[in-house]
Write a structure and sequence with these properties.
267 residues, three-stranded antiparallel beta sheet, UDP-N-acetylmuramoyl-L-alanine:D-glutamate ligase
Length: 267
């Protein structure tokens, strides 16, 4: 049995709700074989992040070399990269090892508010990694940091998405979950067309890890050979199901539940 191969280059979430743990769960329910290159260890739970330990960049590269040289990669994603040096190391590996397609989730701040990317790393993200992205998936606060724009409307999201395409990303999905309103609107810009993806805003609390899970689901779709728009559409359906089935665990904000997708697709 041969499965599509998907790689996540991201941090570890000890609570299992985000990071590589969420990515691997998503890959599994989307029926792809998941692999990892761990960039940072975090001590965190549903209440917040208490400690971060970046992995030495040389060891990040060693993980990438090991996976690509032996197993191969049909699609990859990045998540928490922590430092400018790790970003540059990952970007060099992506170029030299031919890792494509690549989904870049520019993780900067945890849902609890903890910073997951050092301030100096923004320039490295824009200069080294964004131009390698088949798809860049910032939420509104991340898009504001990357573009310097203030985003308060869908029109602002469209401007931010186009600016990031002009800065080198193959396509950009600006996620509008942080904006108000009865609907959650995302903007997908591939440099030729701009599409607004609309879904009802779900009145739920337990949404930890949604950005990781969405980008992982898109990566799984690309690894399976789907075109970008189809991969994004399926991932949007997936994350809606995961959010609706969010897990009430711990004493804080619980995670969205990627395992709900399996029950949904087996009906």
């Amino acid at each position: 049995m041969n499965l599509p191969r998907a790689l996540t280059i991201a941090g570890s979430d000890s609570s299992g709700g985000a990071g590589i743990q969420a990515d691997l769960k998503t890959f599994t329910v989307m029926r792809v074989y998941g692999m990892t290159a761990i960039t940072a260890l975090t001590a965190q739970n549903t209440c917040g992040v208490t400690a971060i330990h970046p992995v030495p960049p040389a060891f990040v590269r060693a993980q990438l070399d090991a996976v690509v040289s032996d197993i191969g990669v049909d699609a990859a994603k990045t998540g928490m990269l922590a430092t400018a040096e790790i970003i540059r190391t990952v970007a060099a590996a992506v170029r030299e090892l031919g890792i494509t397609p690549l989904v870049v989730d520019p993780v900067m701040v945890a849902q609890s508010g903890a910073s997951l990317l050092e301030p100096a790393a923004r320039a490295a993200m824009l200069h080294d990694l964004v131009p390698l992205a088949t798809l860049l998936t910032p939420n509104v606060p991340e898009a504001e940091v990357l573009t310097g724009l203030s985003i308060g409307s869908v029109a602002d999201m469209r401007r931010a998405a186009r600016l990031l395409v002009e800065q080198g990303a193959g396509a950009v999905l600006v996620k509008g979950g942080h904006l108000g309103g009865a609907e959650a609107i995302d903007v997908l810009d591939d440099g030729r067309t701009v599409v607004e993806l609309v879904a009802p805003r779900l009145p739920v609390r337990h949404t930890h890890g949604t950005g990781c899970q969405l980008s992982a689901a898109i990566t799984a779709g690309l690894a399976s050979g789907h075109v970008l728009r189809d991969a994004v559409d399926t991932a949007k359906q997936f994350i809606s199901v995961a959010i609706q089935a969010g897990l009430d665990i711990g004493h804080g904000d619980g995670p969205a539940n990627p395992l709900a997708w399996r029950a949904q697709t087996q009906r």
